[in-house]
Amino acid sequence: MIEIAALIAIAAIAVSIGLNVYRLAKGPDVLDRVLALDTMVINAIALVVMIGVWYATDVYFEAALLVAMVGFLSTVAFCKFVLRGNVIE
Amino acid sequence: MAFALELLIAALLVIGAFFLLVGSIGLAKLPDMMRRLHGPTKATTLGIGAILIASIVHAWAVRGYLSLHELLITLFLFLAAPITAYMIAKAHILVSRETQDAMTPTGTEAPWSTLSEPAPRPAREREEAAPERG
């Protein structure tokens, strides 16, 4: 039962990443694209955690944590750049 | 393994994936930037929380040890999601002219998402501008 649920979850996450790519390509504004990238990072974390559940291993946890931190920092840096034209003043 | 635990893990996985999908559909379909901000920041955060709890229960029930370090990712994402939403909304208000015109007036001279008084200049610049004191 866990295998079927994991397959459904992986398929749903893949569809979500596809929708994010659509918004990333279409988004009329630069901040739409930043938001699409932020959502795509969260979906990527979910996908990495799903790989860990699927193979019943623990080694993918660090990858998920690193992706979470890098995604947050890059979003904040993008917003700061749009706001001020500079990241570190 | 107990059937109930397996059912709990499967339900948490499906619920999490459902909310991730709802957030991404909201991001793709909603008409307006400020409305589009709702989907990723709320639904997606809930979805990833459910998937991480499913991973914790899976480690305890299937892999046979208690691993709570997925809670680190949950805590970090729950701290980070409001901050990113706030930064994106603030940058959007400052950039988009239509959004500024559509909002109610602030009641002060400053527009939205800026400081109401000009920020004090950094100390280094003040020293350079000030005349040398005896």
Record the SSE blueprint.
The complex is a heterodimer of chains A (89) and B (134).
Chain A: H1 2-26, H2 30-54, H3 61-84
Chain B: H1 3-29, H2 33-36, H3 38-61, H4 70-95, H5 97-102, H6 123-129
What is the subunit arrangement here?
A: heterodimer
Q: Number of helical runs of chain B? A: 6
Q: What is the string of helix and strand elements of chain B?
A: HHHHHH
Using CB atoms under 8 Å apart, which protein chain pair has the greatest interface? A-B, 49 and 52 residues
Unreliable spans of chain B are none
Q: Kindly report the average pLDDT value of chain A.
A: 91
β-strand amount of chain B: under 5%
Number of strands of chain A: 0
Sheet/helix structural class of chain A: mainly alpha
Overall body shape of chain A: flat
Q: How helix-rich are the residues of chain A, as a percent range?
A: over 70%
Q: Helical proportion of chain B? A: over 70%
What portion of residues of chain A belong to β-strands? under 5%
**Dominant shape of chain B:** elongated
Instruction: Give me the secondary-structure category of chain B.
Output: mainly alpha
Low-confidence stretches of chain A: none
Cα distance, first to last residue of chain A? 53 Å
Tell me the number of strands of chain B.
Answer: 0
